[in-house]
Amino acid sequence: MKDTTAAQRVLQLPELCCLIVDQLKLPPLFSIEALEIERRLDRRPRSLKDILQVGLVSKYFLEPALDAIWESVTFDELIRRFPFAVFGTHPFNKGDPYVRQVKRRKVTIDDWIRFDYYASRVKWLRIKEQRHEAPQNPHHKHIIKEMSALREPTSWLPRLEGLWIQDISIQQPFGLGKIFFSSQIKDFKIEADKLNYKFYAKLAQTLKLLNKQGPKIRCISMEPPERLQRHTDEWNLVTKEVVSLVKKGSLRHFAYDESVSTDLQYEVLKHPGLELLRLDIPRQINDIFHLPSEIASFKKLKDLELRWNNLSELIDFTPMLRGAHLHALSFHVSRAYSNTEFATLLSELSQNCNLSALEEFVFKAAGATLISTTATTNNNQTSMGADDSAVTEPNEPKLYELLLSHMSSWKALTKMTVLFPVGCALGSVEFLEQVAVTCPWLDGGRWESEADRFLSYERARVPYYDSDFDYD
Description:
Layout: H1 2-10, H2 14-22, H3 32-40, H4 48-55, H5 59-69, E1 72-74, H6 75-79, H7 84-87, E2 89-91, E3 99-101, H8 109-119, E4 124-128, H9 140-150, E5 162-166, E6 187-191, H10 200-212, E7 219-223, H11 232-248, E8 253-256, H12 262-268, E9 276-280, H13 283-286, E10 303-307, H14 311-317, E11 328-332, E12 337-338, H15 339-352, E13 360-364, E14 370-371, H16 373-377, H17 386-389, H18 399-407, E15 415-419, H19 428-438, E16 446-450, E17 454-458
Parallel strand pairs: 1-4, 4-5, 5-6, 6-7, 7-8, 8-9, 9-10, 10-11, 11-13, 12-14, 13-15
Antiparallel strand pairs: 2-3, 15-17, 16-17
Helix pairs in contact: 2-5, 4-5, 10-11, 11-12, 14-15, 15-18, 18-19
């Protein structure tokens, strides 16, 4: 009995209860760990049901479990904590998706206490802007106004660290997101791919409001609008504010597609603490972009994706990866290069990085031209057609041989995609014959090849957790 009593007392320690729950909870939305889970699994692990069950074991586990469950939510999930009467709707029966209209009442202090019980636990908030301005939610605007009368919006989410803003409204960029701007914000993700170019200036003004709060940003992820190249001048207003956020921050995670600002690229490359880096150097600035002299050494980097036109720039970048343990590596090029340059890139990566934990490798050069080593040295042959590109020198290494020579150390590989230029002969048949001998641990995965220039591999996946618990 004494041993049992002692064990019970141990499980009443708040620190131990928190540690047990931490082992079960999902990683933050913006973290490297969350990206690795997405890369390895068919879906995110459904551990919320486990956390809920642990929280019901005793009152000592309840608070840590609730903190973990409500750590990362959508704003819609928070708003639904209010009673039906606040929305002016009520379901006909319990669990019935159909609702009937009822007389709406205002938000009271008791409603606020109920909302605060959950909101005070939130660290990462996802907001879908359009959804809250849709006709099916006509009272959201009134609810937010009444909440603001009870307490300042800046105090609604005292632990908030990250904002993920999706589906930005055409009329009001960040209309709802602005009320959560504070100096505590560290993680910031914007999906503005549907935003009309006429409202880029409004979006820039909104980011300026965030800049005035002086946040120390550690994660920035931007998905700019479609057809951005037609309105780069207008979008540069937005990029200017992002540059300011980068200068003030301590970046660990940076992903920004289609940036035509060299200032932004240079500022990002000064952050040695980066764990994830995705840079896209578009054609219009490729000729004026060169690696800056003040560039960091990225020893902590785990996930790297570079979309640069020139393979030579990628080769020059590899010394900055010295000491890095990469888990994901992706390169995209679109200009002429040779097999020898590709071999140099692979060799430099192996010398400077630890690739023993590499899980995903991508190399795409669909829009490029493969040239022979002889042509590389002749200025009048640097731009060759697809028919000429298929001709390789007798002493040049074959592509499949280059890949196999380095893949022998990639024993954690779960996914690979290579796409070479038109007219390039990868040697898919020879590759698949040799890979079983050189890399037997890849046996059992699914290989696909097409036109002898495309090859992909994906290891068979086993679901991490078989559950019908719906996280979303």
